[in-house]
């Protein structure tokens, strides 16, 4: 399902947000990305204090791309998957390096998907694609709206079949979805978008 396509132009970075059921959705997407994928992929998931390393390790076993935890002042480099560390908000700076914040939780979450996507929208503008997956609250909807307002592209997991549809439903209700897709289609879309935008959902 598609909304109006945004203007043409390649995507240079991806931001992915998820919560309940997110690891399964990520396993349907990230292992399909090839070595040398020409963009950084940043994952912000609602994690317990001890879960960040577990998620990175679980994804690392199956991914062809390196999977690392984002750190203060670390530059976001193409061909790498970055996981937001637990109990910190992750932000993207104008020079495309990460920063961490211990500010109060947003929608009862730290890291907050909204916080990262809003900063990433400012940093990358039209060259950012944001992906919102399964989750049990509305975190991420405002961030997706910010990405769209800054000219970026927004992909939302189809709520049908999502472990927790509340998160994608909230983004769709805000009109913050250019594409709505099942996870097993999203990796192909990501690869296509690195080559150029527009033209509808790949068949």
Would you mind describing this structure in some detail?
The chain has 203 residues and is of the alpha/beta class. The chain has one domain: Rossmann fold, CATH 3.40.50.180. Helix content is 28%, strand content 19%. The chain contains 6 helices and 9 strands. It has a 7-stranded parallel beta sheet, with helices on both faces. A two-stranded antiparallel sheet has the order 5-6. β7 (128-132), α4 and β8 (153-157) form a beta-alpha-beta unit. The chain is globular. The model is unreliable at 198-203 (pLDDT under 50). The active site is at residues 19, 46, 139. It holds the Pfam family CheB_methylest. This is protein-glutamate methylesterase.
Summarize the model shown.
The chain has 203 residues and is an alpha/beta fold. 28% of the residues lie in helices and 19% in strands. It has 6 helices and 9 strands.
Which topology does CATH recognise? Rossmann fold
**Regions with little confidence, pLDDT below 50 for 5+ residues:** 198-203
Describe the sheet with the most strands: 7 strands, parallel
Distance between the termini: 11 Å
Structural class by secondary-structure content: alpha/beta
> What percent strand?
15-25%
Q: Percent of residues in helical segments? A: 25-40%
Treating each run of at least 4 consecutive H or I residues as one helix, how many helices? 6
The strand count comes to 9
What is the radius of gyration computed over CA atoms, rounded to a whole number of angstroms?
15 Å
What is the CATH class name? Alpha Beta
The strand order across the widest sheet is 3-4-2-1-7-8-9
Mean of residue pLDDT?
91
Morphology call: globular
Order of helices and strands: EHEHEEEEHEHEHEH
Full CATH superfamily name: Methylesterase CheB, C-terminal domain
Specify the CATH architecture: 3-Layer(aba) Sandwich
Domain tally: 1
């Amino acid at each position: 399902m598609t909304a109006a396509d945004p203007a043409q132009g390649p995507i240079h970075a991806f931001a992915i947000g998820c919560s309940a059921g997110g690891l399964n959705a990520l396993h349907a997407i990230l292992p399909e990305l090839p070595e040398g994928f020409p963009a950084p992929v940043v994952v912000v998931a609602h994690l317990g204090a001890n879960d960040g390393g577990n998620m990175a390790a679980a994804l690392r076993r199956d991914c062809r791309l390196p999977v690392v935890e984002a750190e203060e002042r670390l530059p976001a480099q193409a061909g790498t998957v970055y996981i937001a560390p637990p109990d910190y908000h992750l932000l993207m700076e104008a020079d495309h390096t990460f920063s961490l914040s211990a500010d109060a939780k947003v929608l009862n979450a730290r890291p907050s998907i909204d916080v990262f996507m809003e900063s990433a929208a400012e940093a990358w503008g039209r060259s950012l694609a944001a992906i919102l997956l399964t989750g049990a609250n509305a975190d991420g909807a405002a961030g997706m709206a910010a990405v769209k307002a800054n000219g970026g592209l927004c992909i939302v997991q189809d709520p049908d079949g999502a472990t927790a549809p509340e998160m994608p439903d909230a983004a769709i209700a805000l009109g913050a979805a250019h594409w709505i897709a099942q996870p097993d289609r999203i990796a192909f879309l990501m690869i296509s978008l690195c080559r150029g935008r527009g033209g509808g959902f790949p068949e």
